[in-house]
Structure formats: C-alpha cells, structure tokens
Amino acid sequence: MKDTRNDILQAIESEVKSVDGHNMIWVRGSPGVGKSALAASILIRLQDQNRHVISFRFDRTQSTTINTDSLWRVVACDLARLYPSFHQYLVKHDKWRSSPGINHLFEDLIVKPISSLGDVPCEELPVIVIDALDECGGLRHDSPAKNDYKGLLRTLKRWVQVDHLKRFKLVITSRPEDAITKMFPDSVSTHVNIPSGSEVKLEDSASDDICAFLKSQLDTMGMEPAWIARALDYLVPRATGIFIWATTAADFFRSTLKNDFPCFNQKVMEGV
User: Fold this and answer.
1) Do residues 80 and 105 share a domain?
2) Which of 194, 219, 239 is the last residue of a domain?
3) Same domain as 217, residue 181
4) Radius of gyration (Cα) for the chain, nearest Å?
5) What's this model's pTM, rounded to 2 decimal places?
6) Would residue 1 count as lying in a domain?
7) Cα separation of 37 and 257, whole Å?
C-alpha cells in the first residue's frame, strides 16, 4: 500500500545502491508480515529508476517445478537477454545442458558466463530479487527436497565469495531460519528485520502502517469516523505488525457489514 513500509523500503534501496556494502540483503520476518509485498515493491521502485531487476519467487506448493534449477535458469535467461556476451558464452559452452547436479549447473550456467561481462559498472548491473527463500524444497520432507534446499544455500553462498559475483546485489526474503542465519551472518550480508509480535510498539512505524492500511479499508466500507477510531484502537495493537492479520480482520468486517449492517455497527461500538 502506498506510503507504508517506507522505512524498510528505503533501507533496502540504500543497501542496493551502496557500492561498498554487502552484496546480499536479507529481508527477514515472521509469516504474514508482508515480505512478498516488500519484494514486489522494491522491484517496482528499482524499475521506476530504470534499474534492471531479475525476480524469482519460490512456492512451497509447487516445489517440484519451482526449484533451485528453475531459479538459476531464469537468472541465466534474463542475463542472456541483457548481455550479448553472456548469451554467446552459453551458446559456445553448453555444458550446462547436462550439468550433473545443482553445483555444476550453477558453475556452468552462472559463475563462468558472468565472468564474460567485463567491466560493467556495478550500478548498472541487474538486481536479483529472490522471494520466499525458505520455501525452496516445499511441503515435502524427503531427501530430494532437503538436498534441493541445501544446494540452494550453497550456491547462494558463492555469491558472497566469488569476486565477480560480489558485484551483483541480491535481495532475499525469508523467515529467520537458523540454517540461513548460520550460512549468512551479518558479517557477510545485510539483515533487514521486519518487526512483529512483542517487537512492535504502538508508536512504531509498523503499527502506523497497519493503522493506515486498516483505516483505508474501513473508509471504503462507509463507516463513520467515530466507529473507525474505535475499531482502530482495538485492532492495531492486536495486529502486532502482522499484515495478514489486518487483512483478515478487514475481510471479516467487510463480510459482516454486507450481511448484517445493524449487527456490524453494534460489534464495532462494543469493540469486537
């Protein structure tokens, strides 16, 4: 939503533009805080500034097709569209077509071809946005799923180790999982935390954003200002920074208003 999450978006944007900062920006937060919305917003903001962005989103319900192989093939495809030298390298050296395993695929499809780009200024290189990193591997609990996830972390670690990969900025969103924290401590990556739960206070920007969102939703329902104020006093503290909670509450109000307007008014005035 416009004019929300400005502090976090500005922090991410500042890190992306920083030449001396880490090349990996990890946006982490609990489920429902709006990580995917932030990923989409930063993509739009950078594109509005004429910056190329390569975007990929993992989905745990489609883990058999949206996997690590898919991620690096998408990145390579977009890089080949942007840079003729990258495209020519892939055509000339096509070992990637039969690379055995994610490590070899990553080397043949990403690491080696990127070395052909030469001295493209860092600020002109595309930003890679990977949303829902923790959903790689999906809902399965078998060995292939676990190996796919571990393989993803290994390839990402190469981004903070290989000199010519360090020139690319990566924005990654996920839950604050231990495996990712151990692999990417703040010594090698920039952590942008999205507060929720007990971390959120009423005077925080997270609460202000929830308040602005709920107010806009209640305004569209034609509620009286006094009702809106009463509802916000009750709802905002209970959202604790979780946007999906706020959207669920707004949807509940909307359906109740549609089905039983007198009952809805009474509930709001009672602070339900």
Assistant:
1) yes
2) 194
3) no
4) 22
5) 0.87
6) no
7) 27
If you search the block for the tokens 């007990």, which residue do you land on?
198
List the CATH number of the domain containing 27: 3.40.50.300
Give the number of domains in the chain. 2
Mean pLDDT check: name the lowest of 65-69, 193-197, 231-235.
65-69
**Nearest-angstrom CA–CA distance, 30 and 235:** 19
Looking at residue 116, its amino acid is: S
**Which of 167, 75, 156 has its CA nearest to residue 122?**
167
**Residue 216 structural domain:** 198-269
**Are residues 234 and 108 both part of a single domain?**
no
DSSP letter at 117 equals: G
Q: Could you give the CA distance from residue 272 to residue 257 in angstroms, rounded to a whole number?
A: 13
CA neighbours within 13 Å on the CB side: how many for 194? 32
Residue 244 forms part of a structural domain:
yes
229 within some domain: yes
Q: Is residue 171 classed as helix, strand or coil in its secondary structure?
A: strand
Let me know: does 231 contact 223? Beta carbons within 8 Å. Answer: yes
Instruction: Name the strand (E) or helix (H) holding 139.
Output: none
CA 64 to chain centre: 21
Q: How far is Cα of residue 70 from the mean position of the Cα atoms in its chain?
A: 17
Give 91-118 pLDDT, tens digit per residue. Answer: 998 888 887 788 889 999 999 999 888 8
d(CA 149, CA 68): 8
What confidence score (pLDDT) does residue 118 get? Answer: 81
66 lies in the same domain as 82: yes
Tell whether 137 and 32 lie within a shared domain: yes
Distances (CA, A) of 17 to 27, 75, 122, 123, 194: 16, 20, 9, 7, 20
Quickly tell me which residue has 């009463």 as its tokens: 230
Q: Any alpha helices (H) in 83-175, and if so which ranges?
A: 84-92, 102-106, 112-114, 143-159
What does residue 183 show for φ and ψ, rounded to 5 degrees? -75, -35
